[in-house]
Specification:
The chain contains 20 helices and 16 strands. With about 450 residues, the chain is of the alpha/beta class. It is globular and about 75 Å long.
Length: about 450
């Protein structure tokens, strides 16, 4: 039975938490100060400590931070969850940097608190390392993930271990590396697998539509709201919500998202009635969120809330030995779709594919294989069949669109703005008009991409 120590100077908080955790099957002790905790920990030997940050009338949190530093220094093996009010969220983030595993706001929700406790304890359990793809496939459902590269196997082992918990996961990596597939695999191997898996591309949602999309709206909430609409959080209730391109979220929307992740409650747009959800959140981005935090374009508290477990996917050029397997996997699927049962890729072509630099990663490889299958009449695809398509891409007219998968929408936007700025010699009015946007919208994009300009 896991032992938990509660450190809080409020007797009502002590009692409430003790009853809740004991009913959930934990052995619990309480104390009202860090000094007493220092004496009690060597005797009681708790696995987890729930530490209140506020032990003073001023609720500055300084005593709690001192206690955290003491616990981390003297009892580094003990796991720590911080309890805080909204006023001390910044301190809680500092606490995460110092080694706390999670922070919860007061008043807490019992289900959320128990979920956090169980997740952290589950993640700390020692499990036997699984070294081969065959063993991983025997234990987990990774049917749609192809490859045996050591980096990929390490990622699959991590997500296999994390999947049964409710830990939030942040998936990073270049465009086309398979972030959505990994998110789906986490859901498929979780206890929520029979519940909804809801995908949201945050890069495609404007700030004005964010609340309506994520939280829903009631009839009459705005001009075009002619009927009630259920938001993505509610659709994903008891399941998994996948938030793709979270790095594209503006700061005001980040605040709204953080509140839902903190409290598990929200109000549909135009409604005053709160709704509660039980959702596991998985986020993905091709951006460097740590750099964005340092630049002030991504909230640090949100970063720590979504980043309990981080998975970085390697680019395809970092796992070239998997290219042949991926190409054959795509060909096997496409020959069924296009009714070409004899279709295959020659061994020489497979070797040649492994030498390619594919900036669009797996997405670009799939596009190349599919395009070659569509344009080649041969049942056995040779190097020359693929080279024709590679040549067409490389020798395309200067003003042609780049191949699908080679650039993200954001990279395309940056490229087009740079071209327009150069063509119109930085004349803001002409650039905005040629791009079909307002000058204000252009200024925002110039600032976003760090493109220098002069005010007109």
């Amino acid at each position: 039975m896991n032992k938990i120590l509660i450190i809080d100077d409020d007797f009502a908080v002590q009692t409430s938490l003790q009853l809740l955790l004991q009913q959930a099957g934990f052995q619990v002790k309480t104390c009202d100060s860090p000094a007493v905790a220092r004496e009690l920990i060597p005797i009681f030997k708790p696995v987890l400590v729930i530490l209140d940050l506020n032990f003073s009338i001023e609720t500055s949190g300084e005593e709690g931070m001192k206690a955290l530093k003491m616990l981390r220094a003297e009892f580094p093996e003990v796991l720590i969850i911080l309890l805080t009010g909204w006023g001390t969220i910044d301190l809680a983030v500092e606490g995460m940097k110092l080694g706390a595993k999670d922070f919860l706001t007061k008043p807490w929700k019992n289900d959320h608190l128990l979920q956090s406790v169980r997740t952290i304890l589950d993640l700390e359990e020692k499990t036997e390392s699984i070294s081969t793809r065959k063993k991983l496939d025997q234990k987990f459902d990774f049917e749609h993930i192809v490859g045996e590269d050591s980096q990929l196997l390490s990622i699959l082992e991590t997500i296999g271990r994390v999947a049964p918990t409710d830990a939030p996961v942040l998936i990073t990596g270049e465009s086309g590396t398979g972030k959505e597939l990994i998110a789906e695999a986490i859901h498929q191997n979780s206890k929520r697998r029979i519940r909804p898996f809801v995908k949201v591309n945050l890069g495609g949602i404007s700030a004005t539509l964010f609340e309506s999309e994520l939280f829903g709206h009631v009839r009459g909430a705005f001009t075009d709201a002619k009927s009630d609409r259920i938001g993505r959080f509610e659709l994903a209730n008891r399941g998994t919500l996948f938030l793709d391109e979270i790095g594209d979220l503006d700061l005001s929307s980040q605040v709204k998202l953080l509140r839902v992740l903190q409290d598990r409650t929200f109000e549909p747009l135009g409604s005053s009635k709160s709704k509660t959800v039980d959702v596991r959140v998985i986020c993905a981005t091709n951006r460097n969120l740590e750099e964005m935090v340092a630049q002030g374009t991504f909230r640090e508290d949100l970063f720590y809330r979504i980043n309990l477990i981080s998975v970085k996917l390697p680019a395809l050029r970092e796992r070239p030995t998997d290219i042949a397997s991926l190409a054959m996997y795509f060909a096997d699927n496409l020959k069924v779709i296009y009714e070409r049962p004899q279709l295959k890729i020659s061994s020489k072509a497979l070797q040649w594919l492994q030498t390619l630099v594919l900036p669009g990663n797996i997405r670009q490889l799939k596009n190349l294989v599919e395009k070659t299958i569509l344009l080649s009449p041969n049942d056995q695809l040779e190097i020359s069949d693929f080279q024709k398509n590679i040549t067409q891409v490389n020798s395309a007219p200067k003003n042609a669109f780049p191949e699908v998968g080679t650039l993200t929408l954001e990279e395309m936007e940056l490229l087009m703005i740079r071209k327009a700025m150069s063509f119109h010699q930085n004349n803001i009015s002409r650039v905005a008009r040629s791009l079909g946007i307002t000058r204000f919208a252009l200024y925002r994009r110039l600032e976003k991409f760090g493109i220098p300009y002069s005010e007109e």
